[in-house]
Amino acid sequence: MASDLPDYYFRIRENGAVVFRVDTENRQRRIDMEEIATVNVRNGNIKPHGDRPLAAAEIIAIRAWMAARVDLLARREIDDIFRAIDHMNLTTHWVQTRASDADLEEVTDTLLLAMHDLRSVLVRKKADRLMKDAAAE
Hints:
alpha+beta; four-stranded antiparallel sheet
C-alpha cells in the first residue's frame, strides 16, 4: 500500500489547498504527512509553510496539481449549468403536473425574479457577442 501512495496530498479548501508531503519511509512504517505549503488556485499564490523553502520538484508538483484543479473546477462549473437546465425542465414539469396552488404561491415570485434576472443577463451577453462579431467583420 505504501508504494501506491502519492508523494503529495492536497487537502482541498475553498480557494485552493493545503499541501502535505507524504512520507512512508520511517521506522514505524506509518504514514506521516508534513505540511509544506498553502496554495490559492484563484490567484496562483503558493505560500511555503514555515521557514523551509519549497524544492523545485515540490513547486512543479504543486503547479501541476493547480492546473489540473483549475481544469476540473471549470468542467464542474459547466456541468452544474447543464444540471441547472435539467432542473429548470423538471421544475416546469412539476409546475404543470403536480404543484398545488399553495406550492405555486410559495415559489412563483422568487422563481420569476430569478428567471428574469438570468434572461436579462443572457440577452445582454448575447447582444455583446453579436456586436463584437459584427465589429470584427
